[in-house]
Amino acid sequence: MPTPHRISLFRFFIAGFALVLTVSGCRRSSFPDVPEGYREYAYISNSSSNTVSVLDLVYLRQDRTLQVGVDPTGLTANPVRNEVYVANTQSNTVSIIDADANRVVATVGVHRSPGFIAVDESGHRAYVTNSGSNTVSVLDLDRRREVAVAGTGEQPGALRLSPDGRSLVVANRGSGSISIFKVSPHEDGSSSDPALKLRAAFSGCPGAADVAILPDSSKAFVACSGGDEVMAVSLAMAPDSWAVKQNSSLITDHLLTFLDVGKTPLHLAMKPDGGEIFVSNFGSDSVSEISTWTNEVSGTYTIGSRPVRGVVSRDNGTLWVSNSGADSVGIYSIDDGRLVGSVHTGSGPDALAFSADEHLLLAADVHSGDVAVIRTEGKVGPTLFTILPAGGSPNAIVVKAIRGKK
User: Fold this and answer.
1) Distances in Å between the alpha carbon of 265 and those of 46, 179, 204, 341?
2) pLDDT at position 326 over 80
3) How many helices (H) and strands (E) does the chain have?
4) In what order do the strands lie in the sheet with 93-98?
5) What letter would DSSP give residue 236?
6) For residue 40, how many other CB atoms are within 10 A of its CB?
7) How far from chain centre, in Å, is Cα 160?
8) pLDDT tens for each residue of 247-263
């Protein structure tokens, strides 16, 4: 029989071996090959340690930790250039990270309590909600400075740009409303119109928490966390568009309906094809499925304890949901209409993000300060592949792939 001393030595050896794997990393075995010089990183904002963790997703290891502003929360990547942006809530700034060199290269001042940030498809402009000043800042990313400010409702939070680049929808949590802005063109810098012009506002959405916009830019859906509903709004189409020629009423924004979902809806996960939206109902341990074509709730299903966020695979077949109260990620088959499994994570999973090839799903564990790396495919199905360190209270993840030699 092993002695207590030998058992202790064995545990020490296992712990040390795991630490070596975490620090040194290893190339992903049995994963798709990547081109020479290909790099891929995950950036995780850690609100209580004022840092961004950079994880290498090719070698599955921690690359480095970057010091940013105080209480980093919002995080997004530029779709065109190798840059990542971090909204620092307590220092009223946005940090710009050079993703090629993985270092902070600039800090831009905004207004009080920035929280969410979005970048347009051209990669030239960013929009930041400032919850403490009830405004949206417009950033010129070429000159790295604020160029305009627009007023919103009270405590603006989540925001979303429409795919056609014409509309910006802002959820105002404090006033239970949304603000819809017209976005002016800026490619040549010659437009005399303001960068943002308020086009419409709609109330009746208490605790407005998240926004989703359909791929054709025709509708916006907003989670009303304080009212257990989702607001559906028709977005104004271009005056010369085919849709407006068929229906002149589409030239203006208008409220469509309110949909009853579960308790405390927090997040909206849309299928890439835009056909359905899945609502994470934190207060009722469920997800609600919304048909975006008919503006109806198709059903509400049990998913796990305190679901926070969801993400849908690009084949439109699988919904992944972080269950913060169960320390797991639930796996819901959209085609079968049922929960098909779950994967254990660290403590308090929240933000989710796929790797570029979707063979990995990352879950930021708020309470344990780490990131669960889930293998989405394999002989035995989805499994926890490893856990990588992050910082205190990780709250957002963005993935950036870089091609070419460093």
Assistant:
1) 24, 19, 15, 22
2) yes
3) 2, 32
4) 72-77, 83-88, 93-98, 103-109
5) P
6) 19
7) 11
8) 766 789 999 999 999 99
Tell me the pairing of strands 51-56 and 93-98: unpaired
SS3 5: helix
State how far the Cα of 174 lies from the Cα of 130, in Å rounded to an integer: 12
pTM: 0.90
Q: Which two tokens stand for residue 172?
A: 């105002």
Going across the sheet that includes 135-140, the strands are 114-119, 125-130, 135-140, 145-151
Total count of residues recorded for the chain = 406
Tokens of 162: 């429409």
Q: How confident is the model at residue 184, as a pLDDT?
A: 87
309 DSSP 8-state letter: E
What whole-number distance in Å separates Cα of residue 116 and Cα of residue 150? Answer: 15
Give the CB-side neighbour count of residue 122, counting CA atoms within 13 A: 14
Q: Using an 8 Å Cβ cutoff, are 52 and 46 in contact?
A: yes
Q: What is the model's pLDDT at position 246?
A: 62
Residue with tokens 């040549």: 188
Residue 40: half-sphere exposure toward Cβ, Cα within 13 Å: 21
- 358 sits in the region (left: phi over 0; alpha: psi -120 to 50; else beta) called left
Nearest to 209 by CA among 120, 326, 131, 276: 131
Amino acid at 136: V
Average predicted confidence (pLDDT) for the chain: 90
The structure tokens listed for 156 are 């603006």
- Per-residue pLDDT tens for 273-318? 999 999 999 999 999 999 999 999 999 999 999 999 999 999 999 9
**CA 183/CA 166 separation, integer angstroms:** 5
**Contact criterion met (CB below 8 Å) for 304 and 345:** no
N- to C-terminal Cα distance for the chain? 54
Q: Which residues of 79-108 are buried (b: 16+ CB within 10 A; e: fewer)?
A: eeebbbbbbbbbbbbbbbbebeebebeeeb
